[in-house]
Amino acid sequence: MRRRCDINTAREGCCLRPHRLFVCLLLCLCLALTGCGGRLGAESETDGGGRLEVGLYTVREDLAPSAEGAALLEAETGTLLMARGADKPLPMASTTKIMTAAVVLLYGDLTASFAIPKEAVGVEGSSLYLSEGEVFTVEELLYGLMLESGNDAAVALAIAVAGSVEGFVALMNATALSLGLESTRFANPHGLSAEGHYTTAAELARLTAYALGIEGFEEVVSTRSMELKGEGHERRYLFNHNKLLGGYDGMIGVKTGYTAAAGKCLVTAARRGDMTLVAVTLNDSQDKADHRAMLDYGFGSFRKVAAVSYGESVAVPVTGGRQGAVIATAREELWLCLPTDLSVEKIYDIRAAEAPVKQGQTVAYIKLFARGSLVAEVPLYAAESVKKQKRLLFF
User: pLDDT at position 197, please?
Assistant: First the structure.
C-alpha cells in the first residue's frame, strides 16, 4: 500500500534543532546528494550556458567569475547550490580563523584569564598589538581574533587552549578529519602562508556551516564593533572588517582574509526565514559583489522543505500476529533545499510485516521523488513489539 502527497511549500516557522542538524546533514549527503557534498542527481557535462547539468537541477558555475574557487551552501541541509572550482585546494588566508574560533569554542574556557606569552607578541600581519604580560580573557581574545583578525590573538588563543601552537593545530586538523574535510589541512591558527596549509571552497563552506551550529560562534562573527576595557590590559577598540555586515539583508557575517599568496578570501553567511546560506570565495578580486550575487541567487531560486517530521507515523499491517497492525515512526526529521519550481512527491512505502515484529525494527519507508528520481529514503521503525499468534491444535 502506498500513500502519496505533494510537498510544494516549506513549513513556515520551523528550523532544525541543533542536535538534529548532523543527522539531517548526513541524510541529505548520503541519500539525496552526490558530487561535492550537495548536488542532486547524476552529474553531466557543462553546457554552453555556463551551468553544470545535474539530475534534478543545475548547479550554477557562471557566478563569481573572478574567484579561483567559490561555493554556495545551504547550511542546515548541506546542499551545494553553486560551485566554481569548489574542489580545488587553495590557500585560505585569515578564513583559517573560522576553524580557530570553532576549536576555541569547543575546547576553551571563555571566562579564563590568560597572560600574553612572548610567542604571541609581534606576530606578522594583522594584529591586536599585544604586549607580553597583558592579561585578557579567552573571550576577549576570541573577539579580537574574529573582528580585527589578530594573528597575535590566534597564537595567544592556541597556547591558552592547547598549551602550544603545535598542539592547537593538531586539534584543528583532528576536527577537520572528524568532519570529513579530506582536502583541508592546517599548519597554523592564523592563516599566514605556510606549506601544507590549504582548503577548498566547498569544504570551507561545510566547515562554516558546522561552526554556525556551535554555541557562541554566530554571536561573535555578527558583532560589528566592541570595546575591550577589562582589567589587566590597555583599552582596545575592535571593528569587524566584513563590509557586508549591516549592508546585506540577513547578513550574519563570518570572516575576511588576504595574503599575497591567497588573494582576497571571503566567507559570508546570511539567513532569511528558515534558510541559512554560506558563500565562500577564494582568490577573488571582486569578492563583495560576487557574494551579493551568489546570495541573491540562493535566496531567489531555492527554498527549504520539511520533508519528514520527527515522530511522523503510519500504521503497518502485521500478518500472523496477536494484533493486526503496528505503528511505525520516523526517528529523525529531514529537510531538503530545493529549487522553487521543483515539487517533491512523498510516498509511504508500506508492506505487511510478518510476526514476530520487534520494537525498533524497520517496517516501512518514506520515499521522496522529484522528476522521477529518488531524492531521499527515510526508514520507519516499529513503535512496539508484536508477538506471533499462537495456533490451537485439535486432535
Answer: 98
Q: Are residues 24 and 145 in the same domain?
A: no
Per-residue model confidence (pLDDT) at position 230: 78
Which pLDDT value is given to residue 38? 31
- Max CA pair span of the chain: 98
Cα angle value 216/221/178 (rounded, 5°): 60
d(CA 89, CA 315): 50
258 and 331 both lie in a single domain: no
Last residue of a domain, one of 239, 274, 301: 301
- Tens of pLDDT, residue by residue over 209-231, are 999 999 999 999 999 999 998 78
Residues in the chain with pLDDT < 50?
Answer: 1-55, 395
For residue 18, the enclosing domain spans 1-34+309-389
* 195/139 Cα distance (integer angstroms): 30
**Paired residues of 275 in beta bridges:** 272
CATH, residue 11: 2.60.410.10
Check if 66 is active-site: no
User: How many domains, the chain?
Assistant: 2
**Count of residues in the chain:** 395
- 149 given a catalytic annotation: yes
Are 322 and 313 in contact, with CB atoms under 8 Å apart? no
Catalytic residue among 44, 66, 88, 97: 97
Active-site position among 44, 66, 88, 94: 94
State the helix-helix crossing angle for 97-107 and 165-178, rounded to 10 degrees. 90
How far apart are alpha carbons 371 and 363 in whole angstroms?
Answer: 26
Report the alpha-carbon distance of residue 145 to residue 123 in Å, rounded: 13
DSSP class of 32 = I
Of residues 126, 149, 255, 288, which has the active-site annotation?
149
Q: Are residues 124 and 223 in the same domain?
A: yes
Active site residue 94: yes
